[in-house]
Write a structure and sequence with these properties.
ATP-binding; Helix Hairpins; transmembrane; cell membrane; Diacylglycerol kinase family protein; binds adenosine-5'-triphosphate
């Protein structure tokens, strides 16, 4: 049990490190809070909540893996190296894919409801 609690502690250290050092991770956290607030405000369905939560999880996980890879690359290749650059670029590409997926999903869920509200006003 103690070991399990310690493992959670390490995981939260990792989350704290990403939040402290990565502006993009903080931006994604703010976007997640906005999406959840909008979800409550617009009374989205259970199915829509599942999509929103999936998007938040995918984006934050992609950002965390990207942060971990960047740190690893800096550790093993502090000097310029073409392959090190590719690793960072590919990892950043994964974050872009996740963010685009979240953006499109958010637009599909929220835009029609927001437009209805605007038309009704
Ligand atoms: N060791 C390296 N060798 C070659 N190219 C690198 C190296 N480190 C970084 N680069 C190139 O510079 C880009 C930016 O790297 P950097 O480490 O600043 O990433 P970042 O996403 O801006 O990180 P952070 O979010 O921590 O500022 C990489 O995507 C890569 O193209």
């Amino acid at each position: 049990m103690k070991k399990l609690i310690r493992s959670f502690g390490y995981a939260f250290n990792g989350l704290g490190y990403a939040a402290k050092t990565q502006l993009n991770f903080r931006i994604h956290l703010v976007a997640s809070i906005l999406a959840v607030s909008l979800g409550f405000a617009l009374h989205i369905s259970v199915n829509e909540w599942q999509w929103i939560i999936l998007c938040i999880a995918i984006v934050l996980m992609a950002e965390l893996f990207n942060t971990a890879l960047e740190a690893l690359v800096d550790l093993v290749s502090p000097d310029y190296n073409k392959i090190a650059g590719h690793v960072k670029d590919i990892s950043a590409g994964a974050v872009v894919i996740a963010a685009l997926f979240a953006l499109i999903t958010g637009a599909v869920i929220f835009l029609p409801k927001l437009l209805l509200l605007i038309h009704a006003a």
